[in-house]
Amino acid sequence: MKIRGKTSGYVLRTVDYGESDRIVSFFTEDRGKLRGIAKGARRSRKRFANALDLFSCSTILFTAGSGDGFALIEGCDVRKNYPGIRGDLEKTLMASYMIELVDLFTVDGKKNLSVFALIEDFLDLFEENDATEALLRFFEFRLLRHSGYEPSLERCVVCGTAVEEISRPTFRPADGGIRCERCAVPEDTTWPLSPGTAKTLLYGRNLEAERLSRVAFSPRSLGESRQVLHGMIRHIVGREIRSLSVLQEVGRICL
Ligand SMILES: [Zn+2]
C-alpha cells in the first residue's frame, strides 16, 4: 500500500539520475533514512530550489510503500540552508563529513530521533560558532553513542577497573573500549587514551550542545581522541571515510 507523507529531513546525498532526475537520501525525523527520486529536479531549479543541497533541512512531501523502499519525492521546501556554513570552506567540509558519517551509520526506514536531533544541534552550532576540531570529536562520540556503538571509556572492558585507577589505559577498536595494563593485548592495534581524555569525552557526552564550544581539550587529548574515534569509526565502517580525507587535505586545522 502506498502512503503519502510529510516529514522534515536533512539531505545526506544526491546522485544525478537519467536526464533530469535526482536520487536523494535524506535523514528524516519520522522515517529515519529515506531514499527517493526527485523527478525533474535537475531541469526545474524552481521546483526544488535549494531544498536538495547537501545538509539542507527541508520539509519533504513523498509517496512511499509501507516498508523501507524507494520513495517518490513530490515536493521539497527548504527550511534551513545554513548560509554561514556554506560561505566557509572548512565548515562546509566539516558538515559534509558529519553528513557522510550519518549516512554510514543509519539504515533505511529506521527512525532515530537522537540522531536527528544530533544533526540539527551540530549544524546549528557550526552555523553560529567557530568550527573547531573539539566539536567534531563530540559529534563523532555522540553519533557512535546514538548508533549503539558508544566507546566504553569508564572502565577496563575486561576486569572493570575504573579509568582513573589505570595508569596507562589503552583503547582497542576491536573491544570498543579501554583496557588496563594487566588486560592489555600487546600484539594488537591499540592506542593510548589517558584518563584525562576519557574524562573530557565523557563530560561532553550529555552536555547541552550550546555549552560544548566551551569545553577545552589539551592538544594531547585532542590527538588521542582523534586517533581513538577515527580508529573506531574505521573499524565499524571497514574503510576510510572519503570526506574525512578531503577535510584533512584541505582543512586549515589538522584533523
Ligand atoms: Zn583490566
Q: Give me the number of helical elements.
A: 9
- Count of β-strands: 8
| Highest-level CATH class of the largest domain | Mainly Alpha
Query: What do we call the CATH homologous superfamily of the largest domain?
Result: Recombination protein O, C-terminal domain
Bound molecules: zinc ion
What is the mean pLDDT? Answer: 91
Element string (H = helix, E = strand): EEEHEEHHHHEEEHHHH
Q: Overall 3D geometry? A: elongated
Please tell me the total number of domains: 2
Largest sheet: 5 strands, mixed, barrel
Radius of gyration: 20 Å
Structural class: alpha+beta
Biggest sheet: strands side by side, in what order?
A: 1-2-3-5-4
What is the CA-CA span between the terminal residues? 47 Å
Q: Strand-residue fraction?
A: 15-25%
Helix amount = 25-40%
**Low-confidence spans: pLDDT under 50, at least 5 residues?**
none
Key attributes of the depicted protein:
255 residues; alpha+beta; OB fold (Dihydrolipoamide Acetyltransferase, E2P); de novo design (two linked rop proteins); elongated; binds zinc ion
What's the arrangement of secondary structure elements?
Layout: E1 3-17, E2 21-28, E3 32-38, H1 45-48, E4 57-64, E5 71-80, H2 83-86, H3 89-105, H4 113-128, H5 133-146, E6 170-172, E7 177-179, E8 191-192, H6 195-203, H7 209-212, H8 219-237, H9 242-250
Parallel strand pairs: 3-5
Antiparallel strand pairs: 1-2, 1-4, 2-3, 4-5, 6-7, 6-8
Helix pairs in contact: 3-4, 3-5, 3-9, 4-5, 5-8, 6-8
The site of zinc ion has 8 residues, from loops.
What features would you describe in this structure?
The protein is α+β, with helices and mostly antiparallel strands and about 260 residues long. It folds into two domains: about 80 residues, Nucleic acid-binding proteins (OB fold (Dihydrolipoamide Acetyltransferase, E2P)), CATH 2.40.50; about 170 residues, Recombination protein O, C-terminal domain (de novo design (two linked rop proteins), Up-down Bundle). It is about 40% helix and about 20% strand. The chain contains nine helices and eight strands. Strands 1-2-3-5-4 form a five-stranded mixed beta barrel. It has a three-stranded antiparallel sheet with strand order 7-6-8, with helices on one face. It is elongated, with a radius of gyration of 20 Å. Bound molecules: zinc ion.
